[in-house]
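Appendix B. Worked example

We walk through a single record from start to finish. Start with the input: the chain for 3-oxoacyl-[acyl-carrier-protein] synthase 2, Alistipes hominis, length 415.
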Amino acid sequence: MKQRRVVITGIGTINPLGNSIEEYFTNLEKGVSGAGPITHFDPSNFKTKFACELKGYEPNNFFDRKEVRKYDLYSQYALIAAEQAVQDSGIEPEKLDLERVGVIWGSGIGGLETFYQEVKSYVEGGFIPRYSPFFIPKMIADLAAGHISMKYGFRGPNYCTVSACASSNHAMIDSLNYIRWGKADMILTGGSEAAINPPGVGGFNSMQALSTRNDDPQKASRPFDADRDGFVIGEGAGALLLEEYEHAVARGAKIYAEVAGGGMSADAYHLTAPDPEGKGAKKSMLDAVADAGLKVEDIDYVNVHGTSTPVGDIAEIKGLFAAFGDHIYNLNISSTKSMTGHLLGAAGSIEALACVMALTKGIVPPTINNENLDPNIDPKLNLTLNVAQKRDVKCALSNTFGFGGHNSTVVLKKM
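Next comes the structure step. The output line below is what the pipeline stores for this chain.
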């Protein structure tokens, strides 16, 4: 069966660098850090007292009081990013065959804030079970996809992918394939996460996964730097409307880029650590390139997972060498988590958007905060350190890897 081409015709985001695509792209190019002291709760007793929070977010500016009661923060962020993408795409839902439009969303954790607040109220209330009727619907990870579909009447494929920090890349790959195979004409995809709360920060602290650079939060996320000490947790959402190419052309849609391929693999190695040689990363990248009908020499830019953890960064670099060989020296490589922090299950969505920026604007976003390159990393690599670089990017690759050894890679092409 001939596979159909899939393109991006609408984009949206709310993340630590901006509450719109325009803000996000501007701050990516400038190399702005989204990190700062935690305001969502009192972090005084926590090892890490900072995060990459949204700026100036007020739910009542987007939802009425009844809606706020029904939506966990991760669903609120999803709905906001989705609305931007729908508006940007120019689609009119009432004119579409809604059974051919789906929603496949990614979230690694879902409604952690809701779970925390409900259990906290149970304990503080003397263990009397007065749970909200919205507790379960707000908490479960699939509900963001459900809320988006209900808002627009999209009745095509609808579910959530959950694979830790690889979640939204898996959502995009599934969306790509459903459209390729003729199962849908459009799918709204992406991811959202809202885990900056006591159990989120405390849980990652207990694993020694988060940076504790409390005296200088904006420089805490420092991928590839010798002095990195963990990732910086972030929050937010990214949305992309994927559409079959001929369908998009027929309605005169603007097209940002083509989603050309995807790859997935498992490390089968450790609960939280990556394979130290990057074997799973290598397979995921090579499978994605092959799925796109390309050669590794066609790739110009790699937006790496690059979390700023001592083990993870080195493993990914090894995977890149194994996948790209000598072509690695022709690549621009960067980690936008140095600016946004790590949005967990939503990371892939906003990093795909960073690739869209590179493809459409010819600007590769930087890896900021690199002051002392890790001596175990080849200094001849172009890691796009500290300053954005201009380049005619024709093909970009975006990696996301998750606890449990989940690896997912998406390839985007310039139109």
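Two observations about the output. The radius of gyration is 20 Å. The domain at 6-257 is CATH 3.40.47.10 (Peroxisomal Thiolase; Chain A, domain 1).
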